[in-house]
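Morning!

As promised:
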Amino acid sequence: MIEILSSSALATVQDLGREGGLRWGVGTSGAMDPLALAAGNLLLGNEESAAAIEIPVFPFRVRFAEDCAFAVAGADCAATLDTRPLMPWSTYEARAGQVLSLGVPQGGAWRAARAYLCLAGGVDVPVVLNSRSTQLRGAFGGLDGRALRKGDTLRAGTPGRATRATGIGLVPPALVLPLQRDGCAAMRVLPAAEYEGYTAASREAFWSTPWKVTPQSDRYGYRLAGVALEPIAAMEMRSHGIVPGVIQVPPGGQPIVQMRDAQPSGGYPKLGTVIEADLWRLGQAPIGSQVRFIRATWDEAVAALAEVRAWLDESGRLLDLHQGLRQAS
Amino acid sequence: MDALERFRQLAAWLAETDIALLELRGPQFLLRLLRDGATDGRTDGWTDGSTDLEPAPAQPQPGTTIVAASTVGIVRHRHPLRDGPLAPPGARVERGQALVLLQIGQLLVQVSAPRDATVAGLLGQDGDAVGYGAPLIELRD
Amino acid sequence: MSLEEAGFSVLGTTAVLFEAPGPMTLAAQRRIWALAREAETWLEVREAVPGMNNLMLSLKQPPRRLEALQERLRAAWAAAEPLELEGRVIELPVVYGGAGGPHMADVAAHTGFGLDEIVERHSAPLYPVYALGSHPGYCYLGGMDPRIATPRRKVPVLSIPGGAVSIGGAQTGVSASAGPSGWNTIGSTDMGFFDPMRDPPALLQPGDSIRFRVERVIR
């Protein structure tokens, strides 16, 4: 069991998302960086999709009320266990009474916005509509359908002394699968239905200029600032289903990328969609940073998904091999 | 698990990684696995059938500890996300703190301080491929 | 997309969008429901989600050949017969105007109608539920009297409560939970539209209809 020591951290319990609820207007929610969440789980020997805590605001502190193995993945937040500095993307064992502190991410080789605290056996909250992710709008899922508060306690699925080796880490995907343009984090995009409805100059600007992540960016959507995107003629849209990654352009011409807590339907014209394989890169782009979009083909987008899947599989395999050897010692 | 089975597992594991040479040493044995096509640049003076073993690693001075590799891997003196070294000479470290990382493909295995200490010096270079028991870092109490 | 041709487009590798051609009608929506039912039996489809005369297919995994999926959708649409769903009629008691209807005056100003006329025209029709979306339990409704249509607000309201009855353009709807909205709120109801513990969790589904019953009019 852990106790949250920080207030106003906007932290929520998330897993890989809630599927099957679109028919009721329930979006997927889930981790903004699903790769980090899955990797943290693999390090602990959890199911990839086990629930974890997503932390977007720092500093963030928890106290372990009992022995428990944990991992911190995502942004490198100079984590310490009591006074001991920890490695990022690594698994450790906490003893009862120890305090885990996550500081403000410093940057280094990868500037990222969100950290994931994974616990042995996953964060144990009830499954609601097939998922443990927090559905903020509907106020259900996660811990009581809301962000975590100081004093909240959360149980781990399998607390106690670690049964797997700790002190193991992974090289983060940002380094293994890098994607940048002119020093900015980049994401591949597939054009959407209304793409041709924008002026040639706007389309060119969309691909070739940087977009700044404004402070109005959160789990619902990332509001980007840059060149004003102009339609050739006004486009009246009927409400239609959308998914995280869809890039809408409301009047005013500044694009909004729908993220994990976005409405599952929308009425604005769509320029394109950030591909599923790259959405974690945007979810980790900090406020104030700039991003670039890269046009992809369908085949490239599908291949990117396979690449991400392969990275997870390889990580899992190496971790199991290492565990097997350790147990044999 | 008997030695042969362990050897098989090691070989299988080695095949999964980028490591070309794996060297294991213990008080009674020295084992080296070389990937096909790789060379280690060493003269094979010991393969003439003699039973001379490699000398035991240098004994640390009193009041110092040598921390050795707990696994095979490539030595990393800093975490790939960070700029600074994990354990610069003179730094105070806590028990359990990472001193050196050993990289095996995508894995980074932490070599930790056995107790609170001061870093006396790093042994070997960043990028070295090492095996079990290779001396990595010298600590001073 | 020409008026004769259906639209097919991708939403990343996660979903595809099919848009029915022609004007938006209930008859076309019934065919969308039929298409959804058919598409949900396809292996690669996780969910078939109707919108307003359109259908999004959420995919379990991306098909290797997109053209095959597009062709299959086109054929299924051509074959789709309007689905006559035996829906229920749910009556919602509404308090029009007052604190729960802060934008009634804006609707009056735009349409030129008085409060009583707006209430009468809004509460007269039977509104079919075309689709669910936007947020848990929210229904997209058809059938609003075009004479009380009022454009979406220039500045959206940061938060309107669940139960808010609003007009946005030519559509009307009821919020199922608190959240931002650019629509004009003219009244409120305290009906619950979504309970995650219930099976199914949403009160309404496509094929049902809503009737707004005038509970009170606050001047």
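Chains B and C do not touch (no CB pair under 8 Å).

Hope this helps with the figure draft.
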